[in-house]
Amino acid sequence: MRVLAGAVMLAVIGALLSAMIYTMFIVFFELDPRFAVCFTGSIQGILLFMWGYMAKDKASK
Question: What is the C-alpha separation between 31 and 39, in angstroms, rounded?
Fold first, then answer.
């Protein structure tokens, strides 16, 4: 049950982060929504890669 709760929390946090980044690009930088989606996905991909890379380093020690 703890794993399910953690997965749900991770999904909610990810969705909120995605919405915040997308809104930042639309409202503050006044980008076209197509570019905002592309940049949001790129930032999320980079963050997930870095998170996985750091988790691998911690697990191997």
Answer: 10
**Spans in the chain with pLDDT lower than 50:** none
* Cβ contact 36:25 at 8 Å: yes
Short-list 49, 47, 40, 50, CA closest to 20: 40
Whose structure tokens read 């890379």?
53
CB-CB contact of 40 with 18 (8 Å): yes
pTM, full prediction: 0.70
Is residue 17 packed enough to be buried (19+ CB in 10 Å), middle (13-18) or exposed (0-12)? middle
